[in-house]
Amino acid sequence: MRAWPLVGSLPPAGPFLSACAGTRPTVTPVWFMRQAGRALPEYRRLREGMGMLDACRRPDLVTEITLQPVRRLGTDAAILFSDIVVPLAAAGVDLDIVAGTGPVIAEPITSPADLVRLPALDPGAVAFIAEAIRMLVTELGPVPLIGFAGAPFTLASYLVEGGPSRTHARTKALMYSQPALWHDLLDRLAGIALTYLRVQVEAGVAAVQLFDSWAGALCPDDYRAFVAPHSARVLAGVSEVPRVHFGVGTGELLADMAGAGADVVGVDWRVPLDAAAGRVGGRTVQGNLDPTALLAPPDVLARKVRDVLRRGLAAPAHVFNLGHGVLPETDPGALARVVEIVHEWRAPDSDAGPP
Amino acid sequence: MRAWPLVGSLPPAGPFLSACAGTRPTVTPVWFMRQAGRALPEYRRLREGMGMLDACRRPDLVTEITLQPVRRLGTDAAILFSDIVVPLAAAGVDLDIVAGTGPVIAEPITSPADLVRLPALDPGAVAFIAEAIRMLVTELGPVPLIGFAGAPFTLASYLVEGGPSRTHARTKALMYSQPALWHDLLDRLAGIALTYLRVQVEAGVAAVQLFDSWAGALCPDDYRAFVAPHSARVLAGVSEVPRVHFGVGTGELLADMAGAGADVVGVDWRVPLDAAAGRVGGRTVQGNLDPTALLAPPDVLARKVRDVLRRGLAAPAHVFNLGHGVLPETDPGALARVVEIVHEWRAPDSDAGPP
């Protein structure tokens, strides 16, 4: 049952899709970025001795890992287990995901000639993700499945730097020095991200999130000139499902990230959520508990969760999440407590439950 | 000649101190964070085969390295060559600065018992910096020398994590879980930073900068509760010179960092400088060119420098700088071009020079 776009008077199914549609449900929905991951012992067992890319390509494993946190925690949405470089590898880019480091690109892109190493993505090359999604939609029943892709800038940073970077210096140097190459590169990456998301939407995901994890490294003028149009193209291509747009350290970019075509804007923990709500043009906000709050004692954690919930009232609707991914050292019990607190909480003017 | 606090009708000496005092000079002053460093070939030659801590402890080398960028670039201020962990090492903390990594702490702080490894700083243990400053004041003549220290939070992050950290997870976990230990730790670090700055002020620096490089990892509530009072204590202890307060990714913290006792607020490149000016309560702003802009072609660089200068007009006065330290891969020629552009530029309503 697809509840987006709203058809006639049918309400969206469940709190997550309702909040995405801008209608505040009685119970605030909650899921966690990287909820399917190293914080869960059942995940670590399943991944033992298996490379990340290998795991991402096996529909049975993708399905099982995606289901694990939903089973254990009762989150209001599942997020597909994958990695933002999976479609790059499927398109033929020579890369690996190295434990403890992240994606490592064999031959970084530095000149126009290098673009031959970045062909379009054949949807058939990611058939494994479509298969996993079809299994997941059946398994999940009413729980919505969120698909995702990396945004063009963040993918470009890996391809240009050759791996994770603290400064993104080579990426920005290329952007400033070779704007034609830059826009060609981002156009190709937008095409790959969009193809990857189309495969996911057609296989049945209920929403998508575009991760522009490193966009916060840019000043607003550069974001607008060099990045936003490419992300907008990706988001425009999947307008039949709710689209979440997220990055880290994006306090000054929230209005532009909303304007790029988001239905929901993901916010990191640096910006108080009520302040963020004022920057995203009346859209639903998602976030934004500091992931390190899960390492705090229960009373501190509970206070911080409720503070985020209260601030979320400044937006039309709020999807509770962390401000970035779950840290591997997180106790799953803390994740469960957060779900419980969020689900018990009610907006002050509501009389449907405890305050 | 100390021009701070303003005495009678004497104007502050030179554009840097004038801007610090909130009076816009005709020519905008410029210096660069990490101007004395790896971008300069004469620095790399001098440091060859010599450890960072060793170099920081030799007054002759500190003097020479501090002078190098002033000679080559004609900046309006010198910044003392040192490292924020130098006073920790002088207080007896077992640490090293490892090339390519950063500070590495032999025994990280995790419990109250560990605080015995963090005694007060004996001013005599940093006599080398006083000696370097006395030599520098003579050598520099009218060019003001800026001293600096690391702020308590940033120092604490190194001590708790054991080295540089992407998430500061252990630091924040300790902060949330053991608030008494946290405040004791930050109080000791504030004492060390203040002693280090007092030595510098008494030896003759004309201004100081408090580097809270990683404060931007905190949400505003945590910054106010756990960090600001300790930084404020440090800044209050050196009120006879202008105080610059700087951190990276601090868009949401600028008002609090100003309120902690800054005369000048340093701004990273993520926040447009005119927006930053609106957040710092009428104080002078310092910044905020993206350090990667120095890797751009000359026309792009020039446009970006002038954009920063124009936005700086929103504050009473502006000290031009980068939004973070000079990247090691920077061409010194680009630094020289920036100085030239800044010095040639005039505010639009001024008729003292070219637009």
Task: Tell me what the structure shows.
- The structure is a homodimer of 355-residue chains.
- In chain A, strand 2 (95-98) and strand 3 (102-105) form a beta hairpin.
- The relative contact order of chain A is 0.14.
- The two termini of chain A are 32 Å apart.
- Chain A has one domain (14-344): TIM Barrel, CATH 3.20.20.
- A seven-stranded parallel beta sheet of chain A has the order 1-4-5-6-7-8-9.
- Chain A has 14 helices and nine strands.
- Chain A has 355 residues and is of the alpha/beta class.
- The interface between A and B is medium-sized, with 33 and 33 residues.
Topology:
2 copies of one chain form a homodimer.
Chain A: H1 14-20, H2 41-47, H3 52-56, H4 59-73, E1 78-79, H5 86-91, E2 95-98, E3 102-105, H6 127-140, E4 145-150, H7 152-161, H8 169-177, H9 179-203, E5 207-211, H10 220-236, E6 243-246, H11 254-259, E7 264-266, H12 273-277, E8 284-289, H13 298-312, E9 318-322, H14 332-344
Parallel strand pairs in A: 1-4, 4-5, 5-6, 6-7, 7-8, 8-9
Antiparallel strand pairs in A: 2-3
Helix pairs in contact in A: 4-6, 6-9, 7-8, 7-9, 8-9, 9-10, 13-14
